Amino acid sequence: MSKQINVALIGNPNTGKTSVFNALTGLNQKVGNYPGITVDKKQGICKLSRGVKAHILDLPGTYSLNASSLDENVVIELLLNKNDKDYPDVAIIVSDVENLKRNLLLFTQIKDLKIPTILVINMSDLMNRKGISLDIELLEAKLHTKIALVSTRKNNGIQELKQLIENYKTISKETCLDTSSIDTAYFESLQKAFPNQDVYKLWLVITQDANFGKITRQELDISKFKTKSNQELKRLQQKEAIKRYQFINSILKEGQTIDRSKATGLRSKLDRLLIHKVWGYVIFFWILLTIFQAIYDWATVPMDLIDTTFASLAEWVKNTFPNGGMVTDLVAEGIVSGIGGIVIFIPQIAFLFLFISILEESGYMSRVVFLMDRIMRRFGLSGKSLVPLISGTACAIPAVMATRNIENWKERLITILVVPFTTCSARLPVYLIIIALVIPEGSIIGLSYQALTLMALYLLGFGMAIFSAYILDRVLKTRHKTFFVVEMPNYKLPLLKNVIITVIEKTKTFVFEAGKIILAISIILWVLASYGPGDKFNNAEAYIEPTTQTSYERNDQIAAFKLEHSYIGIIGKTIEPLIKPLGYDWKVGIGLVASFAAREVFVGTLATIYSVGSANEGENIDTIKNKMQNETYADGTKVFTLASGISLLLFYAFAMQCMSTLAIVKRETKSWKWPILQLIGMTAIAYICALIAFQFLK
Ligand code: GDP
Ligand code: MG
């Protein structure tokens, strides 16, 4: 019978857990959620010999079992709960060879829970260069464990690690520390109160309770047993750490030698340049520009390809299957183009994450945080928020996903909430047509008014993002760690395997998780635009007199008439009283509603409403512009004036009109609360600004 061995990968941040995870599982992994919190749960399968399989769980980085963050809490919850289906048969502590001392603290704690524990010492490739040598046998004996000396970079030691996992039953369960020596009397009374429980586990439960105040385990009613104040407990925790470090020091003194003269100077030279007061920023902005270029420019090639492919696919469906049938239309226009609308984001997401994972992997990202943190922190953001904010200029979707790198939840949340204010590329076609319509052509000191307006809109978006971050920082009441540690990891050449897996994983997450919601909403919007109640919609041909026009013109008019009487048209008309104060009529209203699918749909929708055929793409922007220019209300006043134009620009600048962004925010925050807040908040801001602008200018 083949049995599955449950393995948990645990370790300090940046020791290479994920690299070991990737080395063990390859692409046999999946990412899920821990219930109720925003931490990802990465699981994978590793095939051992003779049909034995190991189920591997990659846990968030943690420094000790004295939890101070939600991420760390995940690890403790798992280790304290034998009934958890992921409870490990064997724990693998991943440490890196350069920071053994710090890493071993966590190791000894887990060891003392009497869980069979394997110690992976990763990054062994650095030992030579750093002048580190280890007496593995001695360490194994003193720590009562098995050690795998691994380099995921050189692919060394992975086979040995698999062997150890397979033979986990032979690992000693002896503890490192006599834990009751922390406070003998207290521990004895604890044991007496709960004779069937492991005393160190009890101790952890009690101190967790002190730190978190929200862990309640039915299994142990420790609330009855709180004979020490939180302060005393904290002091004992410190005592525990000191005892552990004494133990670790004594072992490392024998088992590890470091030749300091070998520590290289390259790192400090690079650091001097990369966090230089001037050059540091220059280099960072140059890198940002490259990233920006990649997602803005390079991605358009595959995006255009996807666009045309899906268009022809829709065309093909229409031509191949029963003509005019409801199912055919649904598949061709609703589903195929809905899926196309998801797939189209893949190039941008892939490019952005290619760059981000290279920056992270190489160790450069920590320097960026160091550089930018002081500035960004004033606005409640993190140094790492700058990458999402800049990439938001191409598209908010990859940008929201990029906030993953921000460890602090509050900073990450604020970044997610404000990113959609930055001017994404979907707003551009809308801006261009409205600017051409209402901003005069003249220029001032060589700069055209139109170009200046466009630039002002970009600045406005970025400014609004920063401003709202500032406000949110004051308003949001989230547990916020005040201390701040930047770890400066060593520079490393990025591991190609890690980079590729990151890109694939992010893309998959987007397609399958946000994709579901996007597809659902696009189908709803399609139905609303393609169906209508009553005769006017269903019998539109009868209402448009076949006069002298060409059949093209007549078809355009029928399409316009149908859209007017479709459900979406009805919604557009219904909201007219609401948008009248902003200077829009119901036609613009339909455009606004349709824009929730994606902002760029606005132009196409107006084209349909003004019955400008989509047959001749090139000319129709001009034709739409002319039609809009001549559009009047019943009393003869123009619809598009400077006032209503500016108002519309402001509305598009601020409103949350992108279901794909809402879907990805839902996925990243694991709750509907934040996307809904975003939808309401941003749209309200947009409405108020547009209202003020129109009322002042008209
Ligand atoms: P995690 O935070 O523990 O999941 O660590 P990661 O797997 O993300 O790795 C952190 C960094 O260490 C990355 O930059 C990796 O490329 C690097 N790294 C991982 N394994 C090795 C190794 O064996 N040798 C070296 N030199 N670097 C490694
Ligand atoms: Mg990791």
Ligand inventory = guanosine-5'-diphosphate, magnesium ion
Mean pLDDT: 82
CATH topology (fold) name of the largest domain: Rossmann fold
Q: What CATH architecture of the largest domain do you see?
A: 3-Layer(aba) Sandwich
Oligomerization: single chain
CATH class of the largest domain: Alpha Beta
The residue fraction in helices comes out at: 55-70%
Name of the CATH homologous superfamily of the largest domain: P-loop containing nucleotide triphosphate hydrolases
Q: Which structural class do you get from the secondary structure elements? A: alpha/beta
Described by the principal axes of the CA atoms, the overall outline is elongated
Terminal Cα separation, in Å?
A: 80 Å
Uncertain runs? 211-216, 480-484, 614-618
Number of domains: 3
Beta-strand percentage?
5-15%
The value of Rg in angstroms is 30 Å
Strand segment count: 11
Description:
- This protein is α/β, with parallel strands linked by helices and about 700 residues long.
- It folds into three domains: about 1-265, 3-Layer(aba) Sandwich (Rossmann fold), CATH 3.40.50.300; about 280-310 and about 345-475, no CATH class; about 515-695, no CATH class.
- The protein contains 32 helices and eleven strands.
- The chain has a seven-stranded mixed sheet with strand order 2-3-4-1-5-6-8, with helices on both faces.
- Strand 3 (about 40-45) and strand 4 form a beta hairpin.
- Helix 3 (about 100-110) packs across helix 9 (about 230-255), helix 21 (about 495-530) packs across helix 31 and helix 24 packs across helix 25 (about 565-575).
- The N and C termini lie far apart (about 80 Å).
- The relative contact order is 0.07.
- Mean pLDDT is about 80; it is low at about 210-215, about 480-485 and about 615-620.
- Magnesium ion binds near residues 17 and 18.
- The site of guanosine-5'-diphosphate (GDP) has 20 residues, from helix 1.
